[in-house]
Amino acid sequence: MIRRRSDTAHPSTVLAWGVSALLEGIRVLETATGVAGPYLAKLLGDLGAEVTKVEPAGGDPSRQHGPFPKDQPDPDRSALFIHLNGAKRLAPAADLNDLLSETDVVVDDGSLDANTLRVANPRLVIASTTPYGLTGPYANYRGEDIVLYALGGPMIQTGVLEREPLKLAGNQVQYQWGAVAAVATLGAIRRAEATGVGAHLDISGLETQVGSVDRQINHLLWLQWTGMEVTRAEGGVPSMLPSGYFPCLDGHVATVLIPSWLPRLLAVLDDPELTERCSQPDWATDPDVPGLLEAGVYNWLAGRTRQQAMADGQEHRVERPHAALSWGFAAHGFVTNLDPR
Length: 341
What we know:
With 341 residues, the chain is an alpha/beta fold. The chain has helices at residues 36-46, 79-85, 96-100, 114-120, 145-152, 172-195, 205-210, 216-226, 262-269, 272-277, 289-302, 306-315, 321-324, 328-331; strands at residues 27-30, 50-54, 89-91, 105-108, 125-130, 199-204, 244-248, 251-255. The protein has two domains: 27-210, Rossmann fold (3-Layer(aba) Sandwich); 244-331, formyl-coa transferase, domain 3 (2-Layer Sandwich). The protein contains 14 helices and eight strands. The strands form two sheets. Strands 3-2-1-4-5-6 form a six-stranded parallel sheet. The chain has a two-stranded antiparallel ribbon with strand order 7-8. The two termini are 45 Å apart.
């Protein structure tokens, strides 16, 4: 079984933001590149595992992606690479075999011979992150974020009906893929500790989108029940309550609201006329209500900073997550300045 390199059976190390180091004593070897696999390994490291990364010749491709300080490309100062790999130990490829002999978890992109590794070490947990899985007709295809988002289904609901569908900004599919992979890997680690039997996890990026609880599962159930596909809404995302980015005194605030939060929103806005209008039995079918609520949010934020909006919103259980970054995460050591330059 996996034997943690620690003097205690139950690790007591506490990370900077107060999370117990659940994986203290676990050694992770990462040969994956890009976002999904490295994010998986980063999450294991955030839980206390010791993560060593071996890059391919030429380095991880994420080194070539910004943002970069002063927009000057530099493979050693890529914000994306540092975010995903800044806390890992980097080792040369020549050390790979030695590292494999003493590791508990391997995170790769399907490039290693998993069967041979597990024969040599039956307790080994291997998490392979590939776009379409290690088997099947698409196994050898490359897959970018936009392709997985489209082929997996969620893209059909993103954007407005009058235009082509859109992908989410950045690498959100790969981050979700990495997060799903991390949960599976934690389960495999726990089993290996309890039974001495490892696992080879084949974690397909496409499957994380097809089976995503973020809209996709609900929309597939809707299709099965009604026979109708969910598509983009005409004129924008349908919502009775305002959602999106709104300007305030010192920037913008992101707001996501659902209909059941209407009483909270009205308490925050403190507008008697609007409250009365929304107290009518037919408020949900009143065509004027969405515009009135949106105007109310604009007016309310016009006189507040992000910090004030967050504080006032949280008082009525309407959170403003962007503003929280200004003090909540930083105060608990969640945000670290790796390069003061």
